[in-house]
Each structure stands twice: as structure tokens, then as C-alpha cells.
Design a protein that fits this description.
Layout (H helix, E strand, L loop, with lengths): L1 H26 L5 H26 L1 H6 L9
Helix pairs in contact: 1-2
């Protein structure tokens, strides 16, 4: 559990930081509406990508091993 949580946190923060760094390089210090819009789109992408990685890392064991599904005992 600790391994999955650590991997999820590191991957989420790392991916968000990388996307923000790439955005800064592409925008090159520009300002205005286009820069604000681009910043918003990148922030949305970073959050959604990080969340997806987080879910994958936290549920990796269940995806690999499966889950038990049993009929209720009557």
C-alpha cells in the first residue's frame, strides 16, 4: 500500500511539473489572452493526466490480480 501510494504521488507531481516546464518553454514569457488560455489548458491536462496516473498506481494490484466476486450466501 505504501509503495502504491508513493508511486502515485511521485508520478502525479512529476508529470505536472514536467508539463508546466514544457509549457514555459513553449510560451517563452508571452502574456495576454493566448498565454492565459494556453496556461489553463495545460493546467487542465496536467491535473487529468496526474489523476489518471494516480488511479492506475493505487489500483495496480487489483488490475493485475483481479478481485473476488462471490454470490451472497442465502
Amino acid at each position: 500500500m505504501l509503495k502504491s501510494y508513493s508511486l502515485a504521488v511521485v508520478s502525479a507531481i512529476g508529470s505536472a511539473m514536467i508539463l508546466r516546464k514544457l509549457t514555459g518553454l513553449v510560451l517563452g514569457g508571452r502574456t495576454g489572452l493566448a498565454a492565459t488560455l494556453a496556461n489553463s489548458v495545460v493546467n487542465y491536462g496536467a491535473v487529468s493526466f496526474s489523476s489518471s496516473l494516480n488511479v492506475y498506481c493505487m489500483r495496480m494490484g487489483e488490475m493485475q490480480k483481479g478481485i473476488n466476486v462471490l454470490d451472497p450466501v442465502t
